[in-house]
Each structure stands twice: as structure tokens, then as C-alpha cells.
Amino acid sequence: MSYTLKKEGKFNYIEEGEGQPIVVLHGLMGALSNFDGIVSYFSKKNYKVLIPELPLYTLPLIKTNVKSLSKYVKEFINHKKLDQVIFLGNSLGGHISLYFTKHNLVNVKALVLTGSSGLYENSMGNTYPKRGNYEFIEEKVKEVFYDPKVATKELVDNVFAIVNDRIKAIKTLSIAKSAIRHNMATDIPDMKVPACLIWGKQDTVTPPEVAEDFHKLFSDSELFWIDKCGHAPMMEHPDEFNSILEDWFTKRSI
Predict the structure, then answer these.
(1) What is the pTM assigned to this prediction?
(2) How far apart are CA 136 and CA 208, in angstroms?
């Protein structure tokens, strides 16, 4: 990633561009670099793109959950003096966006969800990665994508390091259990904001029926499919993803 990671107090984040704020939230095994295509494109289109580094492994275990991560995002938004933000969340990042919106609806202009948890998901397929087994983890990371080549060695190494760190592994499970507890199905109909759902047709983590359920639950949503694509459309098909999102922004005057 060629972008500078800013450090202000407890916040580490990327900030590029000027204009309407888009706050991008990464997933449980995600990295800020997953969103390079979004940053490079929309930061040149009158949007301010911000990606906070979520404290997935630095919060006390008792606070390692969706609620506390949403609170952290609220503190970040207050720190940056942002309002009427667009949230763009992948996987866990989408779930945090939903939880934030439930409690801070007045601060949210729109939601963009891609491979979002919040209803149900298959974590790393259906099995938590086995510690110490690099080949198993490599296989599971590749399964997240339609094109296994997207699972670079750097990405596999990062996941391998997480699952082989005892504390990080425990906190990963804590967040996963929290995600199950904080099911958003009954809350979404009350979220009166426009929602753009961009989904990979071959997503095995949050499969297509999850996207369909989100679409039914939102009072104002549009669902877009990307073919030959898994759980992270903005990584596998960044140009198509950006084109869909820009067209939606234009259509909705966002």
C-alpha cells in the first residue's frame, strides 16, 4: 500500500481525498490494503476515504466484540469531526457498520455492504483454521476467493500468524461469537438509509442467500452481483466494484 498510515492518539488510519466522507471498515482477517482500489478511485472523485485500523487484538478480551468495535468507530468519527458518513464494510466491517447505524442512524448517510456478516456466515469455510498447519490455512484462505491467486503469500502469512498467536486466536473466536449474538435481522427494517449491496455470486462465506435476505430486510436497498467472485469483490474485481458503486452514488445523488 502506498498510502500513509496516520497515527493520532489511539487511532491509526488512512485518509485520502476531500469531500463526502466514506468510512471503510475491514473484516476480521482483513487488512487496510484490501481496499486499495477504493481509495485510489474515490479519493479522486470528491470523496474523503478514511480507513481506521480496527483494534481487533488490542481491546481487553471482555470488550472484544461488535459493540465495542462500533463504539471505537464512533470515537474515531467524533475525533475526525465527521457527520453524514457513508459506511463501506466488508465481512465483519459490514456488521460493525450495521450495529453503528442501529445506534447512530442520524449520523449515517448511506450503507455499502459487501460480503457482510450480520445475519449469518460460514467462518473460513465451516472450520476454524488449525493452528500450525500452513497448508490447511492456505487452502482455507484460497476458498474465500473465486480466483485462488488473489490469496497471495502475504495474505496467507498474515492469517497464519493470527491463528498461531494464542491471544489473537482467542480474540478472533470472541469476535466471531459476538457476531452470532448480535444478529441484525430485526433491526435492519428500521434503518431508513439507502443501502447498496455488492456481492460475489460465488461467495462461500456469506453466500448469495445472505445478500438476498439483506435486500429483503432493508426498506431501501439495491443488490448488485459480481460474477466469478467470492467474499471480497473489491479485491477480486476492483474496477467493476468501483463502477457499480459510482453509478449508484450518482443515481442516488450521494
Answers:
(1) 0.92
(2) 25
